[in-house]
Backbone:
């Protein structure tokens, strides 16, 4: 069932980031999708999650209609089952661009061709593979910076010894904080100068500076002197930063699919290649076929049991 948002309130981007911008929420959805977990104690025994955190996250997922609670079981709704492209895109980006020795990211096997694959981002309209540079974006009727930023800090950072066993650490650095997601969106929509980020994010200068520094530290942005004004610095997306676009695209598409503002979509994306509205679809890197949730097999390496408080 589609959720109807209030006019003038948080739009689909803000609501969606409030759901996916949390490590434990993604972990719960992942295990429901890949391992079929449905009971409270199954998640409690699957990782170092506290009862308080698990209860809070399950309640939020039921409220967001990602899970349905019935007879003591939490089962994925259609909305929840359609989150798999988001997870695949996150895993693929982390596997290629992040060297995290603690991560135990799963491998993805395409059941149709039998090969381990990496998902390719494609345009639904013309079926061609696309990159960030091929897609143009502008705010739609319910867009705008203020409405697109979650109303609170959505991320509760997991502490050492109490973290999901499958980690997407740098993904969370990019989307697990309201200001991080705003800065990332500003970068993809063309912001390059400090003042542009500050104006579009509506954040205090100290927060903008901190987020820019973090993004540069992990190699998503690079700072360089402005050739026209040597005292100014410009921030541009690196190859690693541009490669994060499939995550952004699948998150936005999922949000627009399930959360509708009365004014219309929050963001309009257009594929420059075919000139039509861009909706992301994932293809297998090995056989080129379109991926479907039922045809993706997730394979994990064994991990040592970990304990938490």
Residues:
């Amino acid at each position: 069932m589609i959720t109807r948002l209030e006019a003038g309130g948080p739009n689909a981007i803000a609501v969606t980031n409030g759901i996916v911008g949390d490590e434990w929420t993604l972990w719960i959805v992942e295990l429901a999708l890949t391992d079929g977990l449905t009971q409270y104690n199954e998640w409690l025994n699957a990782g170092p999650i506290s009862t308080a955190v698990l209860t809070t996250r399950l309640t939020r997922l039921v409220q967001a209609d990602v899970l349905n609670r019935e007879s003591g079981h939490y089962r994925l709704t259609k909305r929840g089952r359609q989150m798999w492209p988001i997870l695949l895109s996150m895993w693929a980006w982390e596997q290629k661009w992040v060297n995290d020795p603690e991560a135990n990211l799963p491998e993805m096997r395409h059941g149709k061709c039998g090969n381990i694959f990496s998902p390719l981002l494609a345009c639904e309209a013309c079926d061609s593979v696309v990159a960030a540079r091929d897609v143009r974006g502008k705010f739609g009727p319910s867009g705008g910076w203020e409405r697109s930023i979650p109303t609170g800090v959505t991320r509760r950072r997991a502490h050492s010894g109490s973290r999901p066993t499958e980690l997407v650490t740098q993904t969370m650095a990019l989307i697990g904080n309201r200001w991080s997601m705003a800065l990332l969106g500003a970068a993809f929509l063309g912001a390059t100068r400090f003042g542009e980020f500050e104006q579009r994010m509506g954040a205090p200068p100290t927060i903008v500076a901190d987020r820019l520094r973090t993004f540069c530290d992990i190699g998503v942005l690079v700072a360089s002197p402005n050739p026209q004004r040597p005292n100014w610095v410009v921030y541009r997306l690196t190859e690693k930063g541009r490669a994060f676009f499939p995550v952004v695209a699948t998150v936005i598409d999922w949000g627009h699919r399930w959360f509708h503002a009365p004014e219309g979509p929050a963001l309009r994306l257009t594929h420059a290649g075919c000139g039509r509205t861009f909706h992301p679809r994932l293809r297998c890197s090995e056989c080129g076929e379109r991926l479907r949730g039922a045809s993706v097999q997730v394979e994990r390496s064994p991990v040592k049991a970990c304990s938490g408080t």
Notes: Residues 134 and 162 are 40 Å apart (CA to CA). The two ends are 37 Å apart (CA to CA). Residues 153-161, 304-309 have pLDDT under 50 and may be disordered. The first strand starts at residue 3 and ends at 4.
